[in-house]
């Protein structure tokens, strides 16, 4: 009998947080896959801020996509409004999204599922809104808009997007 692939969306376990290094790198949009951006990019303070000491801030929360016991993707939020502001920072009360899947699992609806679960969690926790930054060329920008994120700012390369979670 063939075993079926079963993807489970669950909270990350403390002993799995190290995988966020891989997820952070995977979250970086690669416009030229033949010449990928060096993995060293995750050591830049403005980038590493998304995972440094993850789980120690009160607003840190992460869900993973688990396929038969192996993490294939993750979505995580944290408020990056201190000394280093996140690329998608809007204020000190708005959690900012980061999401990624290993390449072979992209464009299958798993990212949308992760996003929807995280949005539900943020609503349940009483947040008013959430934000993210995405490169304009990244196909995921359309997914975020389908989920209700609106473009509230932009520069030459990126959109700053916001999702209202409740009417304030």
TrEMBL record:
GO MF annotation terms: acyltransferase activity, transferring groups other than amino-acyl groups
Highest taxon of the lineage: Bacteria
UniProt xrefs under Gene3D superfamilies: 3.40.630.30
TM region(s), chain numbering: none
Signal peptide from the UniProt entry: none
Pfam family for this entry, one: Acetyltransf_1
InterPro entries named in the record: Acyl_CoA_acyltransferase, GNAT_dom, MshD_Acetyltransferase
Coiled-coil spans in chain: none
Domain N-acetyltransferase per the UniProt entry, residue ranges: 7-166
Name by which UniProt lists this protein: GNAT family N-acetyltransferase
Organism expressing this protein natively: Caldithrix abyssi
Classification lineage: Bacteria, Pseudomonadati, Calditrichota, Calditrichia, Calditrichales
């Amino acid at each position: 009998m063939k075993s079926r692939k079963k993807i489970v969306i669950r909270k990350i376990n403390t002993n799995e947080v190290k995988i966020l290094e891989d997820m952070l790198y995977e979250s970086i949009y690669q416009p030229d896959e033949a010449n990928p951006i060096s993995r060293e990019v995750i050591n830049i303070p403005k980038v590493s801020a998304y995972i440094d000491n993850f789980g120690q801030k009160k607003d840190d929360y992460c869900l993973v996509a688990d396929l038969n016991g192996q993490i294939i993707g993750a979505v995580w939020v944290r408020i990056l409004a201190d000394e280093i502001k996140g690329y998608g920072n809007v204020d000190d009360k708005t959690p900012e999204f980061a999401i990624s899947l290993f390449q072979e699992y992209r464009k299958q609806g798993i990212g949308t599922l992760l996003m929807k679960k995280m949005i539900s969690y943020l609503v349940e926790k009483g947040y008013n809104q959430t934000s993210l930054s995405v490169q304009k060329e990244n196909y995921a920008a359309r997914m975020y808009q389908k989920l209700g994120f609106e473009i509230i700012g932009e520069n030459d390369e990126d959109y700053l997007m916001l999702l209202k979670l409740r009417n304030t």
